[in-house]
Structures are given as C-alpha cells and as structure tokens.
Amino acid sequence: METRNYSAVTEFFLVGLSQYPELQLFLFLLCLIMYVIILVGNGLLIIISILDSRLHNPMYFFLGNLSFLDICYTSSSIPPTLIIFMSETKSISFVGCALQMVVSLGLGSTECVLLAVMAYDRYVAICNPLRYSIIMNRVLYVQMAAWSWIIGCLNSLVQTVLTMVLPFCGNNIIDHLTCEILALLKVICSDISMNVFIMTVASIVLLVIPLLLIFVSYVFILSSILRINSAEGRKKAFSTCSAHLTVVILFYGSALFMYMKPKSKYTKASDEIIGLSYGVITPMLNPIIYSLRNKEVKEAVKKILSRHLHLWNI
Length: 314
What we know:
Layout: H1 2-6, E1 11-14, H2 24-51, H3 58-86, E2 91-93, H4 94-127, H5 132-135, H6 138-164, E3 173-174, H7 181-185, H8 193-226, H9 231-260, H10 269-292, H11 295-313
Parallel strand pairs: 1-3
Antiparallel strand pairs: 1-2
C-alpha cells in the first residue's frame, strides 16, 4: 500500500528563494535580461565562427560547441525558472522535472569535459605549433567534441534514472529554483548511498580530473609562453589563453562549490545564489570574455558588420 503512495508524486513544488517574495519581480527581470544576453551573445559567436573562414579551426569549433551548449543549458532552466518566479503554485510536473534534470546535468557534465578538451587544444597550439594542424586534424577534434557530449549525456542519464526511480513518500517540495539533482535527493525517503557514491565518482571523473588536466596543460603553456622571444607573440598567446582560463575558473569554481562541498539536509540561500551563478552568469559571461580578449573575434565582427553596412548602402 505504501509503494502505491510513493509512486503517487506527479508534480513538484519549487520553493527556492520563496522566502523573499519582495525579490521575485527583481529576480524575474534580472534572469530575463541575462537570458536574452546569453541567447544574443552565444548566438552571435556561433554565427561568426560559421561565416568567417578564418575561424574555421579547432579552437573556434570547440567555442561554437560551448556556445551552443550554453544556449541549450540555460534554455532548459531559465524559462521554467521565470515561470516559477511569477507563478503562485510554483509547480513542475514529474516528467518536466526529470527532463530538466537530465538536460541540465548532461550539458553541465559535457561542459566539464569540453573545457578540458579546449585546454588540450591550446596546449598543442602553443607547445607544438608546427605540428598543430597534424595533431589537431578534423577527425580528431570532431571526435573529441562528440565524446564530450556522449560522456556528459551518459552520466546524466544514469544519475537521473537512478534518482527518479526512488520513492519520494509524498514529499514533493523542493527547496531550489530548478530540479537540481542535489536538491531532489534531499526529498527522497529511502537509502541514497548508491546515488551519493555514483555522484562522488562522477564528480571526481568529470570535475577533479579535467581540472587537473587543465592545470597541467597550463603549466606547460605558461612555460612555453615565457620562452617566446617576441613580445607580440607572448601577448597574443596570453590573450587567447587568459579568456579560456577565466571561463574555467568561473565554471569550475561554482561547480566544485556545488558538488564537492559537505552535504547539508537544508538548502541555504547562498547555495541557490551559487547555483544561479553556475547556471546563468557563467554562460552569459562566456561570449563576452572570449570576444573582449580575442582579436580574431573582434576582426570577424568588424568584417561582417562592414559587409552588411556596405550591402545596406547599395
């Protein structure tokens, strides 16, 4: 009889930050503005990397993947969050919650691997410039991007299925803004030791190991940059790598705080703000960081704008 009650949960109530009703409208407008910036900024990066033939190389292929990933990731969480902010019931269906979890967790996991792949690309470009086109050939970099997506999606699928099959015992109030796996595990009323173990292993494989690989890559990169005789060459190399390194620090800093810190039964407001940073602010800043720190992107934008202005004048 109890088993039938466990499976009766058909919707969840997302009550994250609901203790601050005076902030709901402000948060709605803030998230809406940031979402528009994310769509425009990342969309422009994808378009520019496709239209400008000078950007048809592994670095911008990975950057295009990252921009597409950020658009999909935020589209899975921000629109439902906007509805939650303005809704009285603040509910989401069981299926909708599962879909949101599998998409957001999958894309977040993919980004972990993709950032490590991008660091390897920069390592080859700076430490082995003469062999770069041979090592980072089209077959290899397409396969590297594909495996980033496959690994991320498999991790998400396994963790989501193992979470959603567990009983909730009628407890369907989630103290979070989205159906985030950590928040959902807190309302499960059965043993979650297997879930915690798999999540810990996944966090090590997808967070710690890629971060270590990025760190090692940048040790070699920095060593190679310091040996460059040309001041202009050093400046260009630092500019390219600093953009990627800034994105890595923003993304991994938030992710490590979320998934590697000691677990608490209750969600703090600080956790939800960090989650918002992890899911919204970082994807918004990615195209800005890469555009401001990258001369090639700036030149591509100027070229496309001048071409369109010329067509308008005609």
